[in-house]
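Consortium newsletter contribution from the modelling node. Members have asked for a concrete example of what our holo predictions look like. Here is one, prepared for the iron/sulfur cluster complex that several groups have been discussing at recent meetings.
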Amino acid sequence: MRAYVDQHTCIGCGLCAGTVPEVFEIHDGGRAFATADTTEENADLVEEAIDSCPVNAIRDEE
Ligand code: SF4
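And here is the predicted structure:
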């Protein structure tokens, strides 16, 4: 499973990348991307990032 960031909604605050940097990166356009899959090890942090995103731009994808 990999998280998905809605590029039209993300405001590039960096919170998700700060919470779980092995999954989320801020790219040149100033928006976050999920660059790695959610694993058993980081699932709790990914969930925290999803819950903490101020604009609800992240969701879990299959
Ligand atoms: S926490 Fe939300 S708004 Fe902030 S960079 Fe991540 S996806 Fe974008």
